[in-house]
Amino acid sequence: MSIGERIKEKLPLSSTEMQQIMQQLVEYMQAQFAEMMERITVIEKNLFENSKTENDNLREELFQLKKDFVVLKQQQYKELSKIQSCLIEINDLLQEKCIEINQNTEQKKKDIIKTIHWRTDRLEEIYNRHTPRTELSFEVALAEHCNLCCAGCDHFSAIAEPEFADIEEFKRDFARLSKLFNGQAQEIHLLGGEPLLHPDIVQFIQTARICFPDAVIYITTNGILLQQMKDVFWVACHDNKIVIQPTKYPINLNYTALETLAAEHGVEYRYFGNTGTTIKTLDKYPLDLMGSQDARRSFRLCHRANKCIYLQHGKLYTCTVAPTIRHLNKRFGLNLIESSEDYIDIYSAKSAQEILEFLACPIPFCKYCMPEKIKRGIEWHQSNGILSEWIL
Ligand code: SF4
Ligand code: SF4
């Protein structure tokens, strides 16, 4: 095997291997030089033994050989240094490639693991969606309308006419749910629209706590009105262990002051989602106005299903869309149908289990949703009150 072939086989080379190869090349050249020197010595020796003419010829030959020797030596050293720099270059290149290949392989491995985790999470989510919850968590709007009006608001609060929750109905509904669920609920979100718009919010806070003594009760708000809230509100939040849960919007609002205000009243304050650390963006949940989607499929893919459970007028819904669609219908003269199969009446339901099982099933209204077409990360902006904010 030639030196070249051996080098090829070993690439990329370590510095020791590189030194060994260079050593071999030098030895090879030295062998060539030695052979030439031997011939020169033989000729020189013959010079003393031959006739003048022969000697002249030999001298000529010797002279030529010496010249050739010098040229060969120069050429060989030139070649040698060329080979050496080529080898260094190839080796560096290969090492770079090896690093690149290793990095790519590592990245591919990470991507595959990420995909596996993502798919596992999705499967788990789908499974959870179709599995009755063990504990009730739900949302209830104290005001349908809002003072911020985000584009594409998925409660349609940006286009809702002013409408407040009725405290008597609220008391009845909460008492009924409390009875069905033995006063147990995991989380309750008092929201809207904007819940702080309700002039009697304190009564809602007190009722919610009386009916569900151990639940985590949030006031989910845009925070704009927090600094105007009276002491009685803060006292009620404190006494009833309410968590103030503002979404941090990219608006001119001093959130640090709000945090301080809550702390001063001894009220827990937690930002919604990850908006405390990242800039809030919008998600667009497009609706199919023709209702031609496969309801089961939409439910399966929907992250709001059996999660954003919504109480309204004595009925529980698996999500917020069907119960609030009336605002969109009214504003744009549409007719997306919310039927009696889209909710469970908490007064007709015979048990908590019946309710939890209902909430884990698709509803006819799902045919209007296209969860796979959700557009996320849209820069936050206020609504222009146009239909395109809710359709493709
Ligand atoms: S603040 Fe909340 S309720 Fe109000 S418009 Fe924005 S998303 Fe809708
Ligand atoms: S109606 Fe739409 S948002 Fe509600 S559960 Fe069905 S697919 Fe999800």
Salient structural properties:
392 residues, alpha/beta, TIM Barrel, 2 domains, 8-stranded mixed sheet, two-stranded antiparallel sheet, 10 helices, rod-shaped, binds iron/sulfur cluster
Task: Please provide a written account of the structure.
The structure is a single chain. The chain has 392 residues and is α/β, with parallel strands linked by helices. The chain has two domains: 124 residues; 255 residues, Aldolase class I (TIM Barrel, Alpha-Beta Barrel), CATH 3.20.20.70. The protein contains ten helices and ten strands. The strands form two sheets. Strands 5-4-3-2-1-7-8-9 form an eight-stranded mixed β-sheet. Strands 6-10 form a two-stranded antiparallel ribbon. α2 packs antiparallel against α3 and α5 runs parallel beside α6.
The CATH first-level class of the largest domain comes to Alpha Beta
Tell me the structural class: alpha/beta
Bound molecule kinds, no repeats: iron/sulfur cluster
Helix segment tally: 10
Q: In order across it, which strands form the biggest sheet?
A: 5-4-3-2-1-7-8-9
Describe the structure concisely.
This protein is an alpha/beta fold and 392 residues long.
Write the layout of secondary structure elements.
Elements: H1 3-10, H2 15-47, H3 52-129, E1 137-143, H4 167-180, E2 187-192, H5 201-211, E3 216-221, H6 231-239, E4 242-246, H7 255-264, E5 268-269, E6 281-284, H8 295-301, E7 310-312, E8 315-317, H9 321-332, E9 343-345, H10 352-359, E10 375-379
Parallel strand pairs: 1-2, 1-7, 2-3, 3-4, 4-5
Antiparallel strand pairs: 6-10, 7-8, 8-9
Helix pairs in contact: 2-3, 4-5, 5-6
